[in-house]
Write a structure and sequence with these properties.
It contains 7 helices and 5 strands. The protein has helices at residues 2-6, 30-41, 62-71, 85-88, 116-122, 146-154, 165-174; strands at 11-13, 47-49, 80-84, 105-109, 134-137. A 3-stranded parallel sheet has the order 3-4-5. The protein has a two-stranded parallel ribbon with strand order 1-2. The radius of gyration is 17 Å and the shape is globular.
């Protein structure tokens, strides 16, 4: 939805090495998270996966990643950080706030339970940036979260329809996010639907 709304040429998916806002799950090491991201975008030539954060030690701060992109020659006006409205509502807690707001543009995508207006209610000082460096993307999005998927897997429940089939097969093959010895048949079904 963000790509269509803003006419973006390319989407780069960047798995975090050490996400600072949530505990790292040791059951999915960095190379598994990179592999799942690559599997999720397979067949979509406008998408790429980057290991930029996986190669850097320490917390995966977006501000540092954006600095790396700037060092590679990208201007802030050329970069759009796509983020769910629910996550953007917490941007005041991010490393290097408020300077990070000038490091790129932001595409705020509505999420189940959090509209773009909800996020801006929590950050009213940013309303003046709407349409300039902060862009609204009001679109129906599935009620899917990485936390919810991990919880379902830990409970031995199916993730059918929540992740692409290739990602589900990778999770099953490597027994990620599940108690050892759990039954994986519901997870590894070939009839899973790809979630766009």
């Amino acid at each position: 939805a963000a790509r269509a709304s803003l006419g973006l040429e390319r989407i780069v998916v960047i798995p975090s090495h050490d996400p600072p806002h949530r505990p790292l799950d040791p059951s999915a090491l960095a190379y598994h998270r990179f592999a799942m991201a690559a599997l999720a975008i397979d067949g979509r030539p406008e998408y790429r996966v980057s290991d930029i954060e996986l190669r850097r030690e320490g917390p995966s701060y977006t501000a540092l990643t954006l600095r790396d992109w700037h060092a590679a020659g990208w201007r802030p006006s050329q970069l759009v950080f796509i983020i769910g409205a629910d996550a953007f509502a917490e941007i005041r807690t991010w490393y290097d706030y408020p300077a990070i707001l000038d490091a790129c543009h932001f595409a705020l995508v509505s999420r189940p339970g959090t509209t773009v207006d909800d996020a801006l209610t929590r950050t009213p000082e940013l309303r003046s940036r709407i349409g300039q460096s902060i862009h609204r993307v009001e679109a129906p999005t599935a009620d899917v979260s990485s936390t919810g998927i991990r919880e379902r897997l830990a409970a031995g429940r199916s993730i059918e329809g929540l992740v692409p089939a290739a990602v589900a097969r990778h999770i099953a093959a490597h027994q990620l996010y599940t108690p050892r010895g759990a039954t994986m048949s519901a997870i590894a079904s070939d009839n899973l639907h790809v979630q766009d």
